[in-house]
Amino acid sequence: MLCPALRGFGPTRFRSAETPRSSQLAALGRDLLEFLDALDIHRPALIGHDWGARAVANACGLRDRAGSHLVMLSVGYGTNDPQQTLTYVQARNYWYHWFMATPRGQHAVEQDRRGFTRMMWDTWAPANWYTEQDYDQAATAFDNPDWASVVLHSYRHRWGFAPGDPAYAADEASLNPAPVLSVPTLVLHGAADTCNHPDSSTGKERFFSGPYERVVLERVGHFPQREAPENMAGAILRFCEQAS
Asked: Which of 96, 103, 112, 207 qualifies as a FRET site for 61, CA 20 to 30 Å off?
């Protein structure tokens, strides 16, 4: 199993100081395709959570048969469009998106990244789902020097508040509107997710021409890979064995 870091997280580095610190969602999909090509990996099962879920889905949208199976955790497909319909509940859940579009939010991301992200961990899932050691270990990924710029751009671009990198203009056009995917797809969503409400992943069957399944995990919040790893792994293995 390979688990690449997203741009701006952990050990990743931009090769040039002149490269825009973009993290538009199309770029995440393109990064994954370039990662697979560099390692000469053909049609692996693609599994991702949140930003990672958008990356694996967009990779499949940019290249047919990029993966043998697609698994999206805590995110519904077809949610890249800045004009998408949002319920008021989901708009409330996305408070941090709007916050980061302001100077005060930018300051929080740049100057208090651990306090800001800790707020997410404490409010996106039922209480006491992680230990201090868990958080400290994960938070080292936020120490990347490009993390703040990448995060701010990703959310600002997502809602049309910042321009994208022209290098990804063709990919953006390919992904909006969201293309129909033929890859067998599984969506796993926590019933107690207060970041992306589970309703946000319902009614997506029209986007899939191949096998498609959605499973809601009871008493699980936004982080099924940490909150219910055995249930999550079991569902993924079952789906990959059955769907073709």
From this structure: 96
Residue 45's DSSP bridge partners are: 69
| DSSP string of 164-223, one letter each residue | PPGGGHHHHHHHSSPPPB-S-EEEEEETT-SSS-GGGGSS-GGGBSS-EEEEEETT--S-
pLDDT at 244 over 90: no
The neighbouring-strand residues paired with 214 are 187
Helix (H) or strand (E) holding 92: helix 88-93
At residue 111, the pLDDT reads: 97
Question: In this structure, is residue 41 part of a structural domain?
Answer: yes
Q: What is the domain count for the chain? A: 1
**Backbone φ, ψ for residue 72 (5° rounding):** -115, 125
In the prediction, which pLDDT does 81 show?
Answer: 85
Per-residue confidence at 6, pLDDT binned at 50, 70, 90?
Answer: very high
Residue 9 domain-assigned? no
Least Cα distance to 153 among 97, 232, 219, 91 occurs for 97
Range of the domain at 37: 25-78+86-242
Residue 132, domain CATH = 3.40.50.1820
In this structure, which amino acid lies at residue 226? R
Which amino acid type is present at position 99? Answer: F
- Would you say residue 1 lies in a domain? no
pLDDT above 70 coverage of the chain, percent: 100
